[in-house]
Amino acid sequence: MPVLVASDLDRTLIYSSAALALTMPDARAPRLLCVEVHESKPLSYMTETAAGLLGELGDAAVFVPTTTRTRKQYLRINLPGPPPKYAICANGGHLLVDGVSDPAWHARVTARLADECASLDEIRVHLAATADPVWVRKHRIAEDLFAYLVVERELLPEEWVKELAVWAENRGWTVSLQGRKLYAVPKPLTKSAAMHEVARRTGAELTLAAGDSLLDADLLLAADRGWRPGHGELADTDWTAPTVTALPERGVLAGERTLREFLRAVRSTP
Question: What pLDDT is attached to residue 178?
Answer without folding.
Answer: 87
